[in-house]
Sequence to fold (276 residues):
Amino acid sequence: MNIFIVGLGLMGSSYAEGLVKKGYQVYGYDHDQDVFQRAIKYGLIDEKSSLKNLNEMDLIVLALYPEDNIEFVKKYHHMFHENQLITDISGTKVDVVKAIENILSDKIAYTSHHPMAGKETKGIESRDHRIFKGANFLIVKTNRTKPNDELILKKIASDLGFKHTLTVSPKEHDELIAFTSQLTHILAVGLVNSDSHEHTKFATGDSYRDLTRIAKINETLWSELFLENKKALIERIQAFEKSLDILKDLIINDDKEGLKKALKKAKEKRESFDVY
Fold:
């Protein structure tokens, strides 16, 4: 299978690294010529890589920021054809999928996906195909999904090392991501920004470091993601605020038994994820 990866930042270059190791013929493009040349130098993409290769590919992976993925499709969709699959790794789906569907011909196969993996750093020098090992992989069907799309993406997921795949609609994806990814980043940022003690950095332990690692955030990308999924994210923030208020009231009222019950419930629910 010939694969073309558009965008060779952290995720695109990590995909390329993992897929090359599995024997795929990988081509790629990045608007930054320095990044593009480094990708060739590191053996991540074929040295003959060019946008002219697009119509020769079996799979095209759009690994740019969401709005940039849409713009790329607008500019180059005339080079796509019905014997290939177009996919993207955008962190939000409803708006992105709708926009791309409206650009593509009915004959073009387009199924989105979302690798639930990453790092707090960015760029090609941060690439690491091992971040996918054991991670979750969401397949997002669209109105352009063809019968074999899911099988193709499941094979890619397996070869990259992902453990579980789940197929969802764009709406369900954004609802899930608002909670499992976007809210967690909001919490990490909010926790760090609420700090006012000058000696905090000398009093942290694993709990603080684990909770706040993702506060070392790509502010450009995540601002875009938060605003694109605003409705679902606000709903999850409000639900969390209610949960936090319950815990706060239990503490204010010295309700030890109620507090123990709430902690036990959370522990058991979280432990159930570990056997999944």
Notes: DSSP finds ten helices and eight strands in the chain. The mean pLDDT is 96.
